[in-house]
Amino acid sequence: MSRVAKPKAVEPILPLRKALYRAGHSYPGGVTALALDMVMDYDTLQKKLKHDFEHRWLDPDELEEVIRLTESPVLLDALMRPAGMVWYKPEPAAPTQQALQAVSRLLHETGMFVSSMHHGAADNIWEPHEVEDLEKHGADVIRAVLGIMAGARAAMEEHLHG
Hints:
Blueprint: H1 16-26, H2 30-38, H3 42-49, H4 60-70, H5 73-80, H6 97-120, H7 128-161
Helix pairs in contact: 1-5, 6-7
């Protein structure tokens, strides 16, 4: 297949076990700090986050705590992917002309990326890395647009009630 070379998405959507490992190790202070914040033994948490150690996994309460503390986009992507959903944290972005132009550029870049994939997929064979990149770009666009929408609503409500 002929493909236009595109840079990899910043972080592909990982399987849940690897995303948990990444979330724990990306936490400020690493697994040690996360264990302290969870009031859990370091060795216990490290074993539960290790993606290839199947004897121990996080229980539902611990999983919820890891999600709450890390707020890891990689982990949230991994949790939502099986349901075909995109997570969104309401963070209003000011609906300024500059912000709208930034979203426009993101949409343009994503459109060019999708266009290159479309032309290259004439044989209808999709490689795993292509699908991962497409999913990641799509989720990024959705979050950017929803942020602008939330910002516009917040600005409107502030003006009406201000």
